[in-house]
Specification:
Layout lengths: L3 H9 L1 H22 L9 H5 L2 H15 L8 H14 L5 H17 L5 H31 L7 E11 L4 E8 L13 E6 L8 E6 L9 E6 L8 H9 L6 E5 L15 E6 L3 H14 L5 E7 L8 H10 L3 E7 L4 H5 L4 E2 L4 H7 L6 E5 L2 H13 L7 E4 L12
Parallel strand pairs: 7-8, 7-11, 8-9, 9-10, 11-12
Antiparallel strand pairs: 1-2, 1-6, 2-5, 3-4
Helix pairs in contact: 1-7, 2-4, 2-6, 5-7, 6-7
């Protein structure tokens, strides 16, 4: 337990961490990778290059400082990060290394402000916070390993099927090489794939949402191909262009806390943008099986039909299940789209949502690009939807959605 005096010291550093947090975490990662390059095998280098990981860590450190006297307040964030850590292979032995380099970065960036008293308080606080992560993650490792069909770390899977879903998205059907039964997962969860790409110095690990329902005998991921010139395209282009049916990919057990709550029976609204529909299709397929009478509105936004993946699967469900309604929005429709009665033109806005939804007393799940997420969050917030009825996930390091003032 951190003393009251040290809690006060930590909280007093919160304003400077808010102001210079990214500077500290950027220096932290520089030091960390210079001294421990082996850790580059765990981290997404695209997120490093674009500053996403630095920002995410800065936000986490600031949140810890603000809530050091009530760490239970940040447990949801801790668990979200812990799922990522378990899925990529962060272990107990990594935490002392991280703590050492974080304190060194603080000392370097804060200069005279990083007194012995401040650094000692942060060293003690880090030890407490690290132990929280370690305990939660070790429970997650054990749970993943001991469940029926479960495993620890990465396990070899074969690509048994590769199917083009749109001009940008391809699905990969994965089955374990050892042919053991697959553990179930909660709709909305993701798996990590580990790739050794020729010409790349370090292993690449990426998380992809599972885009089909559980208990299918396979895991399915539906991957968007990024531009060849985009740093994010290294892995997606390799999967699209190089990985073939019959190839083997190491995969970690399903993880993630963006999951469907089937304990409720209030209406559901799924709102997706682009490849953000992948976890929501998994949720849709699950809820129509487990709660076939539950009202569901499935909304998908894309540029046009050529970039609209899994469209036929959703349409088939709508055709078979009376309780499901589907809306499609195209921001840049083709001529054929303009003539079709199956889609609308435009973007997700509050006014449009209020036109198609009878009320806001529903559970909203949404996923997509950052701009789309902010727009959807603000629209629901302005409509008075309580935060406990808004469920969302970012692809990559967790970001914060800004509250409308």
């Amino acid at each position: 337990m951190l003393s009251t005096e040290k809690q006060a010291i930590i909280k007093s550093t919160a304003p400077i961490l808010k102001e210079r947090g990214v500077e500290i975490t950027s220096r932290f990662y520089e030091r960390l990778f210079a001294n421990h390059p082996e850790l580059l095998h765990l981290f997404n280098q695209t997120n490093q290059k674009k500053g996403r990981q630095q920002t995410a860590l800065a936000n986490a450190v600031y949140a810890a400082a603000e809530n050091i006297d009530q760490l239970e307040e940040i447990l949801p964030v801790v668990k979200q990060i812990a799922h990522k850590h378990r899925s990529i292979g962060v272990r107990r032995e990594h935490y002392p290394i991280v703590g050492e380099h974080l304190l060194l970065a603080m000392k370097e960036v804060l200069g005279d402000g990083a007194t012995d008293e401040v650094l000692q308080a942060w060293e003690d606080a880090y030890g407490i916070i690290a132990n929280v992560f370690i305990e939660i993650e070790e429970d997650m490792y054990e749970e993943a390993a001991v469940q029926p069909g479960g495993w620890d770390g990465f396990k070899a899977f074969k690509v048994t099927r590769k199917e083009k879903e749109s001009d940008a998205i391809t699905s990969f059907y994965l089955e374990p090489i050892d042919e053991k039964p697959l553990p179930s997962f909660s709709p909305g969860q993701y798996i990590s794939v580990q790739l050794h790409i020729e010409g790349e110095t370090y292993t690449h690990v990426r998380q992809y949402s599972l885009s089909d329902a559980p208990h299918q005998g396979y895991y399915r991921i539906s991957v968007k191909r990024e531009s060849d010139h985009d740093p994010e395209g290294v892995v997606s282009n390799y999967l699209h262009n190089k990985v073939k049916e019959g190839d083997t990919i190491p995969v970690s057990a399903p993880a993630g806390d963006f999951v469907l709550d089937t304990s409720k029976d209030i209406p559901l609204v799924f709102i997706s943008g682009g490849v953000g529909l992948t976890p929501l299709v998994s949720m849709l397929k699950t809820v129509v099986t487990q709660q076939p009478n539950r009202e569901i509105i499935f909304i998908h936004a894309a540029r046009n039909s050529q970039l609209h993946a899994l469209k036929g699967e959703v349409a088939q469900i709508v055709k078979q299940i009376d309780s499901v309604t589907n809306y499609t929005l195209y921001s840049n429709p083709t001529e054929e789209d303009m003539q079709s009665m199956d889609s609308n033109t435009g973007y997700v806005t509050l006014e449009w949502l209020q036109q198609i939804l009878p009320h806001n007393q529903m559970d909203f799940y949404f996923c997509g690009p950052t701009g789309f997420m902010n727009t959807t969050f603000h629209a629901l917030q302005q409509w008075g939807v309580p935060e406990e009825h808004m469920h969302y996930e970012f692809f990559g390091p967790a970001k914060q959605l800004e509250t409308v003032q």
